[in-house]
Amino acid sequence: MVRPRNHRAARCLVLVGAVGLAAAMAGASCANIIGADGDYYDVGTSGTGGTAASSGTGGAGGASSTGSAGQGGSTSGGQGGEAGAGGAGGAGGSAPIVWSSWDVVSDAGGARVTAGNTTATIELYRSVSLTDLSVEATFDQFYVGPHPEGFNQVESYWALAVSATAYPYGGKSTVDRGNDTGETAMPMPLGVRDLQLHPPNTDQLVVVAFVAPVAASYTATDLAVRRVHDQGEYASLVLHSPCNAPGLVSLQAANDRAWVVAAQSYPLGSLSAGERICFGVSRDDNYSWDAVEVSWTITADL
Questions:
Q1: Number of folded domains that form the chain
Q2: In the prediction, which pLDDT does 12 show?
Q3: Which of 53, 82, 147, 160 is spaced 20 to 30 A from 40 at the CA atom?
Q4: DSSP labels for 139-176?
């Protein structure tokens, strides 16, 4: 059914139906009203710009009771017009950037971790104190081979000074995750080489600091730690952001070699490029056999 857009056009259609086509043609005022409103035209006249005729060819984008439909229109007796093209989809936002500790590369050029095209610097150092994880002394000596004390199971590591024992240090494990003797409760993924740290024998921490490469909202997840040797007692992993702020979490690993995993995530807020997220390991009691593997994931939402 063709529906007029106003009451004046409605009266004209009633007139056409009741009196007939001739009467409608004779009614100049009625034709003028319809034509002026732009809704309908007299018999046989083509509409334009979304109008229609009571009989004849439909105007572009309009409709008619008989005849052919205009483009994008429809008819009760003719062929329907083509549907309009759908609108273009909106542009999507930037995808998050995700870095994982097991992807850290340690070599003579320093330590770093890359996700896609974005590389973050990793800093290894000794902290100011047990609660302030700011830099007190940066590790400045690189050792490409395995540590001289074999229980550490570490290579490609940075240490504070040249010495026979090279403690504290930070480097890469020589054993794939899940393949060590006595290792249990492993988080995913298996088979990766973890970041490994050993604390100093002082009331300070060995720190691995993730330096934010871009301004974004950051979150830390997948925090986990384990001692790699069954001698000694405890060592703890802590997270601070900023480095001199109170700690957000502390996970204590025992000499059972099991992984201790934090299930929750830790929103760190908006960070500017160059700000640090600090993970530290403490000796807890004494530093004997306190080599630990650590795991974390950092996500930046741009």
A1: 2
A2: 32
A3: 82
A4: --EEE-S--SSGGG-EEEEEESS--SS--SEEEEEEEE
| CATH number of domain containing 142 | 2.60.120
The one-letter code for the residue type at 170 is G
Judge if 282 and 202 occupy the same domain.
Answer: yes
Query: Tens digits of per-residue pLDDT, 209-224?
Result: 999 999 999 999 999 9
Q: How far apart, in whole angstroms, are the C-alpha atoms of residue 181 and residue 196?
A: 16
pLDDT in tens, 131-140: 999 999 999 9
DSSP symbol at 13: H
Do residue 163 and residue 49 come from a single domain?
Answer: no
Distances (CA, A) of 154 to 63, 96, 128, 135: 79, 31, 25, 23
Helix axes 7-19, 28-37, angle to 10 degrees: 140
Q: What b/e sequence results for 130-145 when a residue is b if at least 16 CB atoms lie within 10 Å of its CB, and e otherwise?
A: eebbbbbeebeebbee
Alpha-carbon dihedral sign for residues 158, 161, 162, 163: negative
Both tokens assigned to 78: 């003719």
| 205 and 252 in a common domain | yes
Any domain includes 117: yes
pLDDT tens by residue, 269-290: 999 999 999 999 999 988 899 9
- 200 prior amide bond cis, ω within 30: no
Tokens of 2: 């063709």
Burial of 149 (0-12, 13-18, 19+ CB in 10 A): middle
Q: What is the pLDDT of residues 108-152, one digit of tens each?
A: 999 999 999 999 999 999 999 999 999 999 999 999 999 999 999
Query: Do 42 and 140 have their domain in common?
Result: no
